[in-house]
């Protein structure tokens, strides 16, 4: 299987065909992680819009956009972009600004790439899906975790016959949930909504749809552990490890098959424990496995000025933007960051929002 990570990357100016792009939002994340991806994507950045005109101008100078706006409707009408990138934030009431901006961009005839969260409710995601189907415009959410090279490779391992059937999947991610009484309040839930997209995307990408779940929660830090059953029959756990040290790697993923398993630690260290030949218990003098069943370890080197050891690639930022651009340019369906994936993540969000600790619910 050939992933983006195993192919050669082209520089922006080397593409023959580039998409006419507008960008809504000149904020911190966009500056650090989204505008810089265009160096490696078929994108012609025509115009930038931010409510703060000075920021839009500063970004335009830095990233080479021709014009700036403080009103997105004006920009869409004047520029008629092929695609719109949206990286905005939350309204005062906790609603997601990008949801309505995406509707406006599609109404103006553009395909949309937007940061997560797609929306603050499952219903709004379903409305976007209906809009996308009606208009034939693609709407993609940046589910970057599904583009991490280590996570893509883990998916390949899970799909390989030697791994067996995925039997269990465990994800750890540090995130608090407020007390149940506060969970109807989108402002109190903003941090949770913002972050559930990350472990939620991993669980859906690797394990498929979740059928039922329950969880336990501690008021000490807001940490929780959920037990999950996937439709496939696999079981899983989501440990939302609020309270862990801020100096530690955030995440760990463990996928277990039948006599074989693999771990992604810190997003970029993958260990594949292949099916082993077990020596006789109590008699084996060596722990060394023959080469064909030895563990495989993948991790980037940090010596060369390469692309693969840059966070633009290890964290999936360029690959997720390329996935969108290629779907538009080649008229192909999106397979990742889809609205269907966002619906599944919103089911998980609703589960935590409305379920008491200790109860089992069908999602
Ligand atoms: N995937 C990731 O790694 C990752 C990391 C951090 C943040 N994010 C996501 O990125 C988004 C932005 O986060 P941030 O911290 O950069 O926020 P931010 O507040 O720094 O930036 C948001 C910008 O959007 C602008 N904006 C809002 N409404 C607008 C409108 N109608 N028209 C034009 N501009 C408008 C604001 O003026 C602001 O400059 C969030 O959705 C967040 O979840 C993703």
From TrEMBL:
This is Gfo/Idh/MocA-like oxidoreductase N-terminal domain-containing protein. InterPro entries: Gfo/Idh/MocA-like_OxRdtase_N, Gfo/Idh/MocA_oxidrdct_glycsds, NAD(P)-bd_dom_sf. Keywords: Oxidoreductase. Coiled coil: none annotated. SUPFAM superfamilies: Glyceraldehyde-3-phosphate dehydrogenase-like, C-terminal domain (SSF55347), NAD(P)-binding Rossmann-fold domains (SSF51735). Residues 20-142 form the Gfo/Idh/MocA-like oxidoreductase N-terminal domain. It comes from Devosia nitrariae.
